[in-house]
Amino acid sequence: MDCVDLSNDKLPPNPLSLVFLHFYSVLVGYFCLSSWPWSTSLSAKGMATADRRVGVAVDFSACSKAALRWAVENVVRPGDHLILINVQKEVLYEEGEMQLWEATGSPLIPLAEFSDPGVAKKYGVKPDAETLDILNTVARQKEQIVVIMKIYWGDAREKICEAIESIPLSCLVIGKRGLSTVKRILIGSVSNYVVNNGTCPVTVVKSPEHEG
């Protein structure tokens, strides 16, 4: 079943429209997921054979692309669902639905949609050519791979952990920035926070330029 794009809908930002959009987003997410062969409640035994939800935290930086490439080469296998988790710091209030998405995150966005510059702009993201090439390549080369993105707004550490639980993810791959000791103390490491607080297995991939 195809997911419905709301990019052309112009709903006034009033409470009733936001309630409608909330339930619409939930339904779209449900049908997007249920139209693919995965169960919403996988047992530990069934997780090994059922389709997995492999998450990758992406911000389109060099370290996130390294994490995405590592996940594609070492984790993702035919039948998996590759779910990109992107967190934006600010919300654009040009559309009423943005006020809702700040709390719940965006609907699930298929690869074909977030590859479209117009759709990506609506969500405030700018997927680069290299990231899109990695995703389109894995979608072609590995059978039955489904690539989708979900966008959150707020603190990256908290929202990534929220995504792990709410989607939910089978595992997560995240890149590690080469922060100095001072910066790590002052602002904290997103990857360290997710490793310590995430409720699924988390793999941290160090960017090549920070190795050594």
Primary descriptors:
transmembrane helix; 6 strands; UspA; six-stranded mixed beta sheet; alpha/beta; Rossmann fold; 16% strand; membrane; 212 residues; Universal_stress_UspA; disordered N terminus; Rossmann-like_a/b/a_fold
Order of helices and strands: HEHEHEHHHEHEHHE
What structural class do helix, strand and pairing data support? Answer: alpha/beta
Oligomer: single chain
**Strand elements, count:** 6
CATH superfamily annotation? HUPs
Bulk shape? globular
Average per-residue pLDDT, rounded, comes to 76
Tell me the name of the CATH class.
Answer: Alpha Beta
Range of strand content: 15-25%
Determine the number of helices (DSSP H or I, runs of at least 4 residues). 9
- Could you list the spans in which at least 5 consecutive residues all have pLDDT below 50? 1-13, 15-49, 179-187
How would you describe this structure to a colleague?
The chain is of the alpha/beta class. It has a single domain, classed as Rossmann fold (3-Layer(aba) Sandwich), CATH 3.40.50.620. Helices cover 43% and strands 16% of the residues. It contains nine helices and six strands, in the order H-E-H-E-H-E-H-H-H-E-H-E-H-H-E. The protein has a six-stranded mixed sheet, with helices on both faces. The N terminus is likely disordered.
Short note summarizing the structure:
With 212 residues, the protein is of the alpha/beta class. Helix content is 43%, strand content 16%.
Present the secondary structure layout.
Blueprint: H1 15-34, E1 53-57, H2 62-74, E2 81-88, H3 96-104, E3 109-110, H4 111-114, H5 117-123, H6 129-141, E4 146-153, H7 156-166, E5 171-176, H8 181-187, H9 190-197, E6 202-206
Parallel strand pairs: 1-2, 1-5, 2-4, 5-6
Antiparallel strand pairs: 3-4
Helix pairs in contact: 1-3, 2-6, 7-9
